[in-house]
Every structure is written in C-alpha cells, then in structure tokens.
Design a protein that fits this description.
Blueprint lengths: L1 H29 L3 H27 L9 H17 L1 H23 L6 H28 L3
Helix pairs in contact: 1-2, 1-3, 1-4, 2-5, 3-4, 4-5
C-alpha cells in the first residue's frame, strides 16, 4: 500500500502541474504571450499524459486515484497568480521551480527499494527524462524573455 501512496503523491504533483500550466496558458492568452503559450503547451500536454499514466498504475495496483492536486495545487495557483502580476519572466520562474520540485520528487521515489519494477521503469524512462526536458525548455524560454 505504501507504493500506492508514493504514486498518489506523484500523481498529485502532476495534477498540480497540469492545473498550473493551464492557468499560465490562460494568463498568457490574455496578455498576448503567444510565444509563451506555444513554448509551454507541450509541457502542459506532457504533464497531462504523465498524470494519466500514474492514474492507470494506481488503479492497476488496486488504489483509487485522487481527482485533484489538493493543497499543493492551491498553493501553486496562488504563487503563479502572484508571479503573473510581476510579469512573464516571473511566471516562467515559478513554472521552472515547480519542474525542479517535481524532478526531486521523482528522484526521491526512485530511492524506494520496494517500488515495483513497472513504476520504476516508467519513472526512469519517461517521467524523469520529461522533467529534465521541461527544465531545459523553460530555461530557454526564460533566456528569451525580456526582464
């Protein structure tokens, strides 16, 4: 059951990321940030796919996937809303920090020696490499965004 709890935490992270990116995309549409929207849309889609994969694993293991991100998602939305007031660069920095936190959570999960092989493989081959890609992408967007 501990393994399901670990996957549930990772799923909540992915749900939070999905909610946060969706919010950022909506804000960029309002502010005319087409470059930003185009840059983060693939990351948003990646998080949605990751959430679906984790949900499927939880069900397969006999668990009930959480439907929302919980308190972490509310906190992330609050931080993003504040950053949005400061501009596009601040918004990207918040997204980047979220990606780094997600990377750390995946790395922590891999330290669990009881993690089933299927979960470990998903994290090692898809989810963690995606986090690295997201971080690189956001670093490039940040470099291209005027202060």
């Amino acid at each position: 059951m501990q393994n399901v709890k670990t996957i549930e935490k990772l799923l909540k992270d992915e749900l939070s990321a999905t909610e946060t990116y969706q919010d950022a995309l909506e804000k960029f549409k309002v502010t005319g940030g087409q470059f930003m929207s185009n840059s983060i849309m693939p990351i948003f889609k990646s998080h949605k796919a990751a959430a679906a994969s984790l949900e499927a694993l939880i069900v397969k293991m006999g668990g009930l996937p959480p439907k929302g991100s919980g308190a972490w998602g509310s906190w992330a939305k609050l931080v993003l809303d504040g950053a949005s007031l400061l501009g596009k660069q601040s918004t990207i920095k918040v997204l980047l920090e979220g990606e780094k936190n997600g990377k750390g959570d995946y790395e922590d999960a891999l330290k669990d020696t009881t993690l089933p092989a299927e979960v470990r493989t998903l994290i090692e081959t898809k989810l963690l490499p995606a986090q690295h890609d997201h971080i690189r992408s956001l670093d490039r967007v940040l470099d291209a965004t005027p202060a």
